[in-house]
Specification:
The complex is a heterodimer. Chain A is of the alpha+beta class. Chain A has 1 helix and 5 strands. Chain B has 14 helices and 30 strands. Chain B starts with a helix and ends with a strand. The chains are: A alpha+beta, B alpha/beta. At the A-B interface, helix 1, strand 4 and strand 5 of A face helix 1 and helix 3 of B.
């Protein structure tokens, strides 16, 4: 066989395959990580939106609790906590809201509402104060 | 051929490089995405931190309208976010207590009176959010609604609804009646057809039904009848919660004793107080009542009353021409306000009183009182503005005698009403001397009559009016006295110059005059009109406006009419009956609340009074978001 028709050596092939495999594995791993991260970001954004939705509903309704109360899933009383409490499913993710409401001591008409949004293995904590004379 | 194998190797390397670059780009984008997401979270947290700062400032202002620290900070979310509020020329400006515009970084005079510019910066992580709002006082109640009922309005007899801008400014305003019932049924309002209905505004219904407002109301003197409205009630005021909180706070329980109880500034509670036979005067306080609250008397002054049960009281004999005076009554149960048929009683009383020393019957004096007072008010209404009145000097300063040409029309009708004129046909008015000063003569008749709650009520009212001294010479002597300290207004606040007078001084002065033994409302008007004292023009104009405003709210055709000055908010039913004038507004907005107006009810809607109602409630609120 003429030298001009000689193929790749086994070493060359293995080296090339190795390089490409490493690169592709890295790419696949990163893509998976990116996909997971993107999902988590989307879920975290969704959780923030749910908290925002709840805060805006409280602002609209103006019915903060007059005593310190933890709402961990029981039915809403007099419209508090408002929707989307106690939870909501968005796409394929289940979000659960835990709400803590309390008057701010020594302040007239000032209430603190803390919302813990839980989903999968994650959670987001949000707090807002409301003035409701 | 070496060249060929090199190309293959380079190709593999190049391919690998591309893949690795893709990995790098993906990693970078993923990291950026996470970073953006974290920043987004921080942005949300910073926003709500700033929003919380706004709430905090409103709460602070609720307790102290002068709150304006150089720097105020607060933390939230376990210290992960915080807000900052700064006051100064380049930041927030508090003008809640100011009666003139203030400048801010937004420009000269950019913060109107009784408002505040609030700038709050929220921080979370690396993100900041700035919120900017204009805060104002008042705002709990819908503007323009003089009367609001959830389910039904029942009217029997005369009903009049008017509005003035404020008690110091009688510019006419719209005064709407609103029925919130949106059921597609007829007759959400009714009127028995006795007397007349006059509404200086629209009759609004939330119902689509054409018969919701019946035809006899639509045909009455009403500016407009509208259906399919979307009026909303004031928001829930949580009366029971507030009373509960007040009881827990251990506020003092005042003893309601004697014919009148005055509560000093502060917070008070009462538990199941039962019936109190007397008047309650609020002097800038909040009273929280658990249970029913029934008074065989009136509530007046300046303050708020919260009642978890039913509320019942009478109208007061007196009315105050002060803008900041008014009771805010918040009741979770039914509210009943009663006047009493004073005009009928007065007619009957005077008929039984016979005649005076000149043989003129008191019935005639009563008629004269009505006639002269109506003419006087008409003269004022016809254009006798304060400047023209104040511009004429020495009305009573001339030698007693007919001074036609030096007396205005106003004087012509005014003087015989309150002064004993010593000659007939005073200023060509045709009034004989013995028929002048019906105010004094009626007061004397009441003083000489047998005591009774009705007589006492009317006597209180006529004493508030106070006739002038018994002859023109005395008027001249008193008004023209060279020393202000000895003139008619001996206790008046004399300022050092125009603009140097505190409005509170004027209010206190008016109160002092009314409480005094020698003067009264007519006197105030007289003093305001006469430029013969040391009181500067500006001050006298204030007096004039306040006295005149009070005058206009008094129905001289019905001198027995009682007053309730303030706001009534109830989650139950509301009943007003028997010659009662409500200066303020009424809201019966529980799920099934009904309003009944019976036997001569007049409502004067005062937007400013409504806006400032309820010092214990949200008298500060966000008027406008400037940056959000």
């Amino acid at each position: 066989v003429a030298a001009t028709l000689r193929g790749f050596t086994l070493t060359e092939v293995l080296l090339a395959l190795g390089l490409i495999t490493v690169a592709l594995l890295a790419l696949v791993g990163v893509l998976a990580l990116s996909l997971r991260s993107s999902t988590q970001n989307r879920q975290a954004t969704q959780a923030a939106q749910l908290a925002q939705q709840l805060f805006e509903e409280i602002r609209r309704e103006g019915n903060c609790p007059s005593a310190t109360v933890d709402y961990t899933g029981q039915p809403a009383v007099d419209g508090f906590p408002p929707a989307p409490y106690p939870g909501v499913q968005v796409e394929d993710t289940e979000y659960r809201l835990v709400v803590h409401g309390e008057p701010v001591g020594g302040r007239t008409g000032l209430y603190a509402v803390k919302v813990n949004v839980l989903w999968s293995q994650h959670q987001g904590q949000y707090e807002c104060r409301f003035y409701q004379p | 051929m070496k060249r060929h194998s090199g190309v293959a190797f380079l190709s593999v390397l190049f391919l690998t490089l591309i893949v690795l670059m893709s990995v790098a780009v993906t990693v970078k984008r993923t990291l950026q995405g996470s970073q953006f997401q974290v920043q987004d979270q921080h942005s949300v947290a910073a926003f709500y931190a700033a929003d919380s700062g706004v709430a905090e400032a409103l709460s602070r202002w609720q307790d102290n309208k002068n709150w304006a620290p150089a720097l105020y900070t607060g933390t939230l979310n376990n210290g992960n976010s915080r807000f900052e509020i700064r006051f100064g020329a380049a930041h927030s400006v508090n003008n809640l207590e100011g009666d003139a515009p203030r400048s801010s970084y937004r420009g000269a005079g950019s913060v109107p009176p009784y408002q505040a510019l609030l700038v709050v910066t929220g921080f979370a992580g690396s993100r900041t959010r700035v919120l900017e709002v204009m805060v104002a006082r008042g705002g709990l109640f819908p503007p323009g609604a003089a009367l609001m009922t959830q389910e039904r309005l029942t009217m029997q007899g005369d009903v009049t609804v008017t509005a003035v801008r404020s008690l110091a400014d009688n510019a006419p305003q719209a005064a709407d009646v609103s029925i919130l019932n949106d059921a597609d049924t007829s007759n959400h309002a009714s009127w028995d057809g006795n007397g007349a209905i006059n509404v200086d505004g629209a009759f609004n219904s939330n119902s689509d039904n054409a018969g919701a407002i019946p035809a006899n109301i639509a045909a009455a003197n009403v500016s407009a009848v509208r259906r399919s409205q979307h009026n909303a009630p004031p928001r829930n005021l949580r009366i029971a919660d507030r009373v509960s909180e007040a009881l827990s706070a251990g506020y003092p329980q005042p003893a309601l004793t004697g014919p009148s109880t005055t509560l000093a500034p502060g917070n008070y509670t009462l538990s199941n107080p039962g019936m109190y036979n007397g008047d309650l005067v609020l002097n800038g306080c909040n009273l929280y009542v658990s249970g029913d609250f029934r008074l065989n008397g009136s509530v007046r002054g300046n303050g708020s009353v919260f009642v978890t049960g039913a509320t019942e009281m009478k109208g007061s004999a007196v009315i105050t021409g002060q803008d900041n005076a008014g009771v805010a009554l918040y009741s979770a149960g039914d509210v009943t306000l009663r006047g009493f048929n004073g005009s009928q009683f007065l007619s009957s009383f005077m008929a039984g009183a016979g005649a005076d020393e000149n043989g003129v019957t008191y019935s005639e004096h009563l008629n004269n009182f009505r006639t002269y007072s109506s003419r006087m008010l008409q003269a004022v209404a016809d254009g006798m503005s304060a400047p023209s009145l104040l511009g004429n000097y020495s009305r009573f300063g001339n030698t007693p005698g007919v001074q036609s040409g030096s007396m205005s029309d106003f004087d012509a009708w005014y003087a015989p009403l309150i002064a004993d004129i010593g000659w007939d046909n005073y200023n060509n008015t045709g009034v004989p001397a013995i028929r002048t000063n019906p105010t004094r003569r009626l007061t004397v008749a009441l003083e000489n009559g047998a005591a009774s709650p009705s007589r006492d009520f009317l006597l209180k009212k006529f004493r508030e009016l106070r006739p002038m001294p018994t002859d023109v010479t005395t008027i001249q002597t008193q008004v023209m006295h060279p020393s202000a300290s000895q003139g008619l207004l001996g206790s008046r606040p004399v300022s050092s110059g125009i603009g140097g007078v505190d409005l509170n001084q004027i209010d206190g002065f008016v109160d002092a005059l009314r409480a005094g033994a020698d003067n009264g409302l007519f006197d105030i008007l007289n003093d305001a009109v006469n430029n013969t004292t040391l009181v500067p023009t500006w001050e006298r104009q204030q007096l004039y406006h306040r006295a005149l405003s009070t005058f206009r709210e008094m129905d001289f055709d019905r001198p027995g009419m009682a007053f309730f000055q303030g706001i009534v908010y109830t989650e139950g039913n509301f009943l007003a009956e028997d010659e009662l004038r409500i200066v303020g507004a009424m809201y019966a907005v529980g799920p099934h609340s009904r309003v009944t107006l019976r036997n001569g009810i007049r409502v004067t809607f005062v937007p400013e009074l409504v806006a400032r109602a309820g010092q214990a409630l949200g008298t500060v609120h966000v008027r406008q978001w400037l940056r959000r």
